[in-house]
Specification:
This protein is mostly helical. About 70% of the residues lie in helices and about 0% in strands.
């Protein structure tokens, strides 16, 4: 009850936790207490004050960092709009440079955590602008490095990461004070280069720096799953990814890492030819505001392999319409996949435009290979060559792009099998499996718990989609695919 000794004591404890945490977000002061982070992550956020002071800014700094670090992200981007219009405070402020830098860094950390890296990078740049000490500069660089890496701007991210690492070494700060954000940026940069060794080094460093923090441990294991995929250890990667996503460890993990894991598992399923299983894995997932992980893009790989090209375009139309607000890291592969779908449907000019835009983004942001992940090799290469034919800038980097494609693409032969193009629904697939068991239509109806007329309708649809005239041909085609 407000005003009681207990409530007064609780507010005092919260203020003390916020003050200590704000101090320890900077290196050289120790690391934030797990107990304080848990307490602050559950605290109600204040309304914007009539006038921002250092005390109010540092309190919000701690509250936002705690929400990011303890995965309390339910308010999403709306929370940022409570205080900011873009990167400008909506209320007057009388803030020191250091307090403003710290506040912007925490907002940037929160934006990165919810999957809105464009805003994360902007707030990181603002934090860097006002950083007036090595400590605030290191924190700002860490936020900026992750924001740019999440947004696929790998050259800028690497510059910020290297400067932060150099600053940390020069100051001799204790290893446990290494920024988690910086190691995530390191992992993303490594993945863009398909550098398995560097990925594993980042995971190892996470364990060394914070051996007892379950959030850091979960992220390290997720990074190792990504490395398994790149080195084509698909079975182990799929199994470990599933364990992390569905086991008890997910309760102490960051949403960003779970989203990455779902994406990696779906990519592995596509590589293994289990396209419908990949779609089923992605089905419950909702894309965050900034598309730092874009599940429409993830679905497009399986849809492409299933020959569901029009569905792919419909799935990703909204992403293209919001291009200016879309994360570049996920927009680029989306444009490549749309290019392939458009080309298959006979829209050659639009296909070349989409591919050319994607290739220009790849070159501009650091020549990542990941936009070509799990795509049909020869089909993608042919369209890439056509798009680069009259562009000297793209022609110069074509050998690199060819090499990157060869490392992560999959054989074309898998793309257009009769059953892939057939586009059977899950219900039709279940009926098709019973057809293979030589059951009568009456028995299939009994097995499925539906009417005979329903089964007959499904079977006619299956025959039509397979392009066969009867059960014998259908069973032959289904059996061949099953083999």
């Amino acid at each position: 009850m407000p005003g009681t000794p207990a409530s007064i004591e609780a507010r005092a404890a919260l203020r003390a936790a916020a003050a200590t945490t704000a101090l320890r977000l900077l290196p050289g002061r120790g690391v934030p207490s797990a107990r304080h982070l848990a307490l602050l992550s559950e605290a109600e956020l204040p309304e914007a004050p009539a006038m921002w002071t250092d005390a109010a800014a540092l309190s919000l700094t701690a509250l936002l960092a705690a929400r990011a670090r303890r995965d309390a992200l339910a308010d999403g981007a709306a929370l940022v709009a409570r205080y900011f219009d873009d990167v400008r405070l909506i209320r007057p402020a009388s803030l020191s440079s250091g307090a403003r830098s710290q506040l912007c860094a925490s907002v940037g950390e929160y934006c990165n955590a919810i999957g809105w890296p464009q805003a994360g990078a902007r707030f990181g740049a603002e934090a860097l602008l006002f950083a007036d000490t090595d400590e605030t500069r290191y924190r700002a660089l860490s936020v900026s490095a992750l924001g740019h890496a999440l947004n696929g701007e790998y050259i800028t991210a690497e510059t910020a990461r290297a400067e932060a690492a150099e600053l940390f070494a020069a100051q001799g700060w204790a290893a446990p004070e290494t920024a988690y954000l910086l190691l995530l940026a390191e992992a993303l940069i490594a993945s863009s280069r398909l550098d398995v060794g560097r990925l594993l080094d980042a995971a190892s460093e996470m364990r060394r720096v914070q051996p007892d923090d379950p959030y850091w441990g979960y992220a390290a294991r997720a990074i190792e799953v990504m490395a398994m995929m790149f080195r084509r250890d698909l079975g182990a990667g799929r199994a470990e990814g599933r364990r992390l996503l569905h086991g008890s460890r997910r309760l102490s993990s960051h949403r960003m890492m779970r989203h990455f894991l779902v994406s990696v598992v779906s990519d592995i399923l596509v590589a293994q030819g289990e396209y419908r299983e990949a779609l089923a894995t992605l089905e419950p997932c909702e894309t965050p505001e900034g598309h730092g992980v874009c599940f429409s893009m993830q679905r497009s790989a399986a849809l492409l392999r299933l020959g569901r090209d029009r569905e792919l375009l419909l799935e990703t139309d909204a992403c293209v319409a919001s291009e200016a607000d879309h994360c570049l890291r996920t927009l680029t592969p989306l444009l490549v996949r749309r290019a392939l779908a458009l080309n298959r449907l006979g829209f050659a000019r639009r296909a070349h435009q989409s591919m050319e835009t994607a290739l220009r983004l790849i070159v501009r942001t650091g020549c990542s290979a990941t936009p070509f992940l799990m795509l049909p090799h020869e089909e993608t290469r042919a369209l890439m060559d056509a798009a680069a034919l009259e562009d000297p800038e793209l022609a110069d980097v074509l050998p690199y792009l060819h090499a990157a494609l060869a490392r992560v693409a999959t054989p074309d032969a898998e793309a257009h099998s009769p059953l892939s193009v057939a586009r059977l629904t899950p219900v039709e697939n279940a009926t098709a499996e019973l057809l293979l068991r030589s059951l009568s239509l009456t028995d299939i109806a009994r097995e499925r718990g539906v009417s005979l007329n329903t089964v007959k309708s499904q079977v006619r649809s299956i025959y039509h989609k397979l392009g066969v005239g009867g059960r014998a041909e259908a069973m032959e085609l289904l059996a061949a695919n099953d083999a």
